[in-house]
Amino acid sequence: MENRNNVTEFILLGLSKSKRVQILCFLFFLLCYLAIWLGNLIIMASITYSPLINQPMYFFLNYLALSDLLYTSTVTPKLMTDLLTGKKVISYHNCMTQLFTTHFFGGIEVCIITGMAYDRYVAICKPLHYAILMSRQRCNSILGASCAGGFLHSIGLFLLAIFLPFCGPNEIDHYFCDVYPLLKLACTDTHKIGFLVIANSGLMGLGIFVVLMASYFMILCNVRAYSAENRHKALSTCSSHITVVILFFAPVIFVYIRPATTLPEDKVFTLFYTIIVPMLNPLIYTLRNTEMKNAIRKVWYPIYNGEKINKSTLKC
After folding, report:
1. Each residue of 22-37: pLDDT tens digit?
2. For the chain, which end, N or C, has fewer CB atoms within 10 Å of the first or last residue's CB respectively?
């Protein structure tokens, strides 16, 4: 593999050449990254240390928050570092590692979102069989299948990229190592490989998106027979999930469904599913979810309130 390559490192062109824009981007992404960690850690702690962990939906949400942290951490720290340095360099091996890990954790996230949609479908459309169909064993199986699906997705793209010959130039017109920018640099015909990437990422993303939207359409049809209170609760939960699905999958489909080519807009769309969505997920799943807000209050506020009560008792 290395004998076919004259390239030992790549130069990432990043988002902009303007130093002022880079500083502003650094500050923005720093705030986003801190929000991602804070929001997702609060979700994970609130679910883990509350009875919600026993509910399948929150079991999946807990691991979605973890996958968000791991997924965005494959891209964001390197992006912020490059915004402060003059030459944005990444070694060949680190580039391939980043390609694999980004798609691995991204694939896991897609599969977990699919598992959450299945959970809502069973809960609303087959409520009498919910306890059996969504047992803890079934949830663990779905989580294991999500990891396996993420691995198969990422190893496919990794194998396509690892055998590409690179003879120069070595400038990647992106802020991280992704498959399409690498295909653009390969000194071989990548036409057929481009179609494999479409099948692996584009068509897979489109297929999952259609399945998810079809499941939510069926859910919306079923909730019409519910009482007003239960209908409002179901619609509130599903609207949060639909928002995440659209924000995540629309940019993915735009980037990967077309033949192997890169557009200037790709960087902006990629920011949505690598940074923006992981930052918005905690807000989307908590602001419109009464159970999550109650769990956060019970896990985080009682400690402070207890200390306050004890102090006032001592004064009396």
Report:
1. 999 999 999 999 999 9
2. C
